[in-house]
Amino acid sequence: MPKAIITGITGQDGSYLAELLLSKGYDVWGLVRRSSSFNTARIDHLYQDPHHREVKLRLVYGDLNDSTSLANVLEEVKPDEVYNLGAQSHVRVSFDIPEYTGEISGMGSVRLLEAIRRQNLKTRFYQASSSELFGKVHEVPQKETTPFHPRSPYAAAKAYAYYITLNYREAYGMFAVNGILFNHESPRRGETFVTRKITRGATRIKVGLQDKLYMGNLESKRDWGFAGDYVEGMWRMLQTQEPDDFVLATGETHSVREFAEKVFASLDLDYKQYVEYDAKYERPAEVDLLLGDYAKAKTKLGWEPKVSFDGLVKMMVDADLVLAKEEKALADHKELVRQGQQ
Ligand code: NAP
Ligand code: G4F
């Protein structure tokens, strides 16, 4: 059985990747941070096996800020593959905590690579690089050869991680690759990223749980795909003969405004009546336009996105509408109980 370690397994991508690897028969080890509250909601369905079959998913405590924990888990597992998905991944927040973001999203990668190298492991390494690297873009669409121009502490940290991954490949012959992934979303997307914030907000408005949705810059454009498609691309990158770097994208771009308009319209609402501007969601430097060219991944990996933009919007709205209705039912029930007690 191949063995894989996933950092960031509790995040959006980590949960989809764990599902994919388990379905392929991998033994999966997930690195989790100690948290004062439960943070495994996205993967609970994977390790709570009602049939008591052999456990294929194990969680171990560790932190990308803690080299010892990384070396320990590598020594214990001696994995065939490591997927480094762990990060402080929020661009806006990275302006508030730039140093921490550098430690986790940048230095975390070299801590892992160095632990693999020092233990002489033959482990294949995937680095979660980002279209944020293109930042103030030098060409449209962006591809593997497009120059980088990071626009945030997050992107600067990811630039370091990108180059250190390339460096360990060139310097030590390690099978270390960068997946330069454009934005990818899902019903499991963190609620403070813009797509999920919109689908959560609009569905809560629809059922009467909130009145307004406060947002920042609606004019920026993103190439949005479905996270489930993208983890398949990550896996394919580690199955090739030669290590290489790949862009994964959809080749379509849409503005935040367009996303909001579509989501609200699908609920028979007009976004203009509900979306309000709040400057606190603006970034000190913005990435205005991302549009990816995934031709290399298509040719060399046979990878293509399957879920369309409209399909993604529908998937997210449908899932969040279910959540909003459950939340509303609970709120109504609590109100009835409260009235009964008066
Ligand atoms: P996410 O949902 O924010 O998940 C981030 C994961 O990193 C979580 O599991 C988090 O754990 C973990 N983490 C945070 N700090 C850590 C630390 N100090 N040590 C160990 N783990 C830590 O991100 P995502 O959307 O799944 O993205 C996965 C990766 O791809 C990230 O590296 C992101 O930067 C990159 N990326 C994402 C996109 C995208 O559009 N989604 C595009 C390009 C690149 P907790 O649950 O404990 O917080
Ligand atoms: O959803 P976002 O926060 O994603 P962003 O900044 O593009 O970063 C995401 O994708 C990257 C890949 O390109 C990843 F590397 C990164 O880890 C992360 O997953 O914001 C998208 C756009 C921005 O232009 C932002 O200014 O939406 C705009 N926006 C407008 N109002 C907002 C809001 N973003 C957020 N999060 N919240 C708002 O209220």
The tally of domains stands at: 2
DSSP, total strands: 13
Query: Distance between the terminal alpha carbons, to the nearest Å?
Result: 61 Å
Q: Main beta sheet, described?
A: 7 strands, parallel
Question: How many helical elements?
Answer: 11
Q: Quick check: average pLDDT?
A: 97
What does this structure look like?
- With 342 residues, the chain is α/β, with parallel strands linked by helices.
- The chain folds into two domains: 3-190 and 223-248, NAD(P)-binding Rossmann-like Domain (Rossmann fold, 3-Layer(aba) Sandwich); 195-219 and 253-285 and 313-341, UDP-galactose 4-epimerase, domain 1.
- The chain contains eleven helices and 13 strands.
- Helix 1 (12-23) crosses helix 8 (227-237), helix 3 packs parallel to helix 5 and helix 7 packs parallel to helix 9 (256-266).
- The radius of gyration is 21 Å and the shape is globular.
- The termini are far apart.
- It binds NADP nicotinamide-adenine-dinucleotide phosphate and ligand G4F.
- NADP nicotinamide-adenine-dinucleotide phosphate (NAP) is lined by residues 7-8, 10-14, 31, 33, 35, 39, 63-65, 85-89, 104, 128, 130, 181, 183-184, 190.
Chart the SSEs and their pairings.
Elements: E1 3-7, H1 12-23, E2 27-32, H2 44-47, E3 57-61, H3 67-77, E4 81-84, H4 91-94, H5 98-118, E5 124-130, H6 153-172, E6 176-181, E7 184-185, H7 194-206, E8 213-215, E9 221-222, E10 225-226, H8 227-237, E11 246-248, E12 254-255, H9 256-266, E13 275-277, H10 295-301, H11 309-341
Parallel strand pairs: 1-2, 1-4, 2-3, 4-5, 5-6, 6-11, 7-10, 8-13
Antiparallel strand pairs: 9-12
Helix pairs in contact: 1-8, 3-5, 5-6, 7-9, 7-11, 9-11
Bound molecules: NADP nicotinamide-adenine-dinucleotide phosphate (NAP) and ligand G4F.
